[in-house]
Design a protein that fits this description.
314 residues, 7 helices, alpha/beta, two-stranded antiparallel ribbon
Length: 314
Amino acid sequence: VARHSFPCSPKTMAAPASPVFDGDVVPRIVAVIPARGGSVSVPRKNIKILQGRPLIDWVIQAAEYSGIFDEVWVSTDDDEIHMIAKKCGAKVHRRSPHTATNTASTESALVDFVKAHPNYDVLCLVQATSPLITPLDFQKGWDAMRRAKADSLVTCVRAHRFLWSVDKRSGVARAVNYDPAKRPRRQDWDGELIENGAFYFTTKEVMEREECRLGGRVALHEMEEHTFAELDSPTDWQIVANMAMIHGFWPPGSVKPEGTDESPGSAEVTILGDSKLGLAAAAGLGMGVGLGVAGVAALLAAAAAGLLRSKAAA
């Protein structure tokens, strides 16, 4: 299931302000990070090491340090992910097997979670494959939803890309979002807001009524363009590893690694929610790579070539 393909139809027209923001009661906000054991594109992706840290640790720490969540959970079917998530400081929900298959939707995992943990007012779905989220993103996202008195929130990046479509029968192409005869300059065009799938806020009312991450009155938090990055191949991993050194959230007291971490055997892995944990790199957990200037160039080249693909569901 594509990361941005929802098995639901969000109802977003003419919605009144969310009742969550009525009165002086502070809503209870719970974050959940789906992280199943099976990953098709990159084996064991959710706990694969990115710059010395398991992938899920990046979003767990960003969520914890944002200060807006009452609880941060990882929803998984996997024993090793369970152990590492707890070491990173998250609570763990054991999701039902049918929500962790290659064809299961993220929404099914959300429904499974809220049925087991109904004590929330607002749910935040956080994608483990978005390690460049910062605590400030969560804070700004929540502020945007609160100011709009919205029922849900989506995160996006702004891209100045000219989109085209091709008729399958005739083969004729047409511009989708601009007039080729009046090609705009970048500085004269706001571009397009593209969903980056980093995180979503959803009120309990919307989740119970629609079983969907988005619905009702929808707010939007615009994130930096570098957060529109993918983790679907070794090349993606190298690019994002470099970006994490520059743009990722490093909690106070953490030490950034130097060089590479590609050696076989036992790897000493920093777990910021605890101390240190010995993991087997041979099990697919190794590879934190710093690419320097070449990595940034590779990212720009990938973007120009249109290689920022749709992410797979967690």
